[in-house]
Amino acid sequence: MSACIVNNLLRSVVRVESPAPELFVGGGRNNVQSRAVAALASVAGAAENVVEFGGLGARAPEGDGLNASTHYRFVIADDHPLFRGALREALSGLFADAEIAEAGSFDEAVSAIDGGGDVDLVLLDLAMPGVRGFSGLMYLRAQYPSVPVVVVSANDDPAVIRRCIDFGASGFIPKTLAVDSIRGAIGRILEGGVWTPPDVDLDRGADEEIAKLMARLATLTPQQVRVLMMLSEGLLNKQIAYALGVSEATVKAHVSAILQKLGVESRTQAVIAASRIEVDQWPQTPVLGR
Hints:
Elements: H1 3-15, H2 31-44, E1 50-53, E2 56-59, E3 72-77, H3 81-94, E4 98-103, H4 106-114, E5 121-124, H5 135-143, E6 149-153, H6 158-166, E7 171-174, H7 179-190, H8 208-217, H9 222-232, H10 237-244, H11 248-262, H12 267-275
Parallel strand pairs: 3-4, 3-5, 5-6, 6-7
Antiparallel strand pairs: 1-2
Helix pairs in contact: 1-3, 3-7, 5-9, 9-11, 9-12, 10-11, 11-12
């Protein structure tokens, strides 16, 4: 996490009790305007329902809106405690009776989702212990198809945002976003919509070859995604079997299925194929033999 983001988060922790707090200060945004929009929203209330998007005032989606007293259950998956705390403050300010679980690793996030009760939204960082790139998102969408996932990341490259949506994310929230925008985005998603930064063109797709590869990756089962993640880390079959609590024969069956679905002939080719989704978005550790 950059020093700028850390400083912004530290400022947010100090100011969370003040009216219309800003947990994050986006680069190049007019903070005076942001506070003015938040103040207007406070005065106008539900009748106007103003939300700040990227420094510009915009009305929230039409509809009945969210009931702030409804009980919601959230899982925040991020390895930075300070940022988890900032997201908790944003959610707590939006819902009076929110149940919020925090996870510092991907395995903890999975345990929190399985821990009991329906989860209304998972806020997932792309890079955290146990996961890198899109693999965590792929796993959650395959394992919990009814649970919406919003990616919260410092990597706001438009290509990354588009691919998160392609892999089933319900939204993408940059870590530099102001608190009002975060709350507006979460509200939009919980109402069944999709939220991304307004300057991102979602219609601009990947090239045909990459699009086909992404479609193939999307056919992997949750367990196959985990196996591919571990192959990318250079683990042997017996190591994967131990980590997953299955037999080596089961791992070999998963590997064979992965190769078939990706249209490749070897473990190395499978890892290379996965790494082509986006540079630096998938681990590229040399793959060992069986």
